[in-house]
Amino acid sequence: GELIDDDEASHRGKMYDQQGCSYLYDMDAHVDRGEEDNNYRKMYVLDAAKHGNVSRFINHSCDPNLAVYAVLYDTMDVNLPHIGLYAIRDIRKGEELTYDYKYELLEGKGMKCHCQAANCRGRLY
């Protein structure tokens, strides 16, 4: 995908929302940081709309079979990790690969979740 900054991601995100399709991924989406983390700076956003690998087609589930980890490879810059997807349980042959997008649930807004998991939260955000 293409690395872009927050401003460009906001612009593209609005356009993608109108199209009903988005391949934006916040590079720090699954990084737990303390509020007092002085070394924190906003990471990049990965836009896989035009090019990327097969992982851009991995969908959300409230009961995922994959976990997402930031992986440092070929660089020690914590702001430019690779994204690693790792199985968190045995995956059956032919089963769809999924991870939890972990979007913040916003009051009065949202997109319906279609994952059909027993523990489905009902919406993505």
UniProtKB/TrEMBL annotation:
Limits of the SET domain: 1-102
SUPFAM superfamilies on file: SET domain (SSF82199)
Domain named Post-SET: residues: 109-125
A GO biological-process term: methylation
Superkingdom to which the source organism belongs: Eukaryota
Gene Ontology MF annotations: methyltransferase activity
Signal peptide feature range: none
Alphabetical UniProt keywords: Methyltransferase, S-adenosyl-L-methionine, Transferase
Protein name, UniProt field: Histone-lysine N-methyltransferase
Organism: Pyramimonas obovata
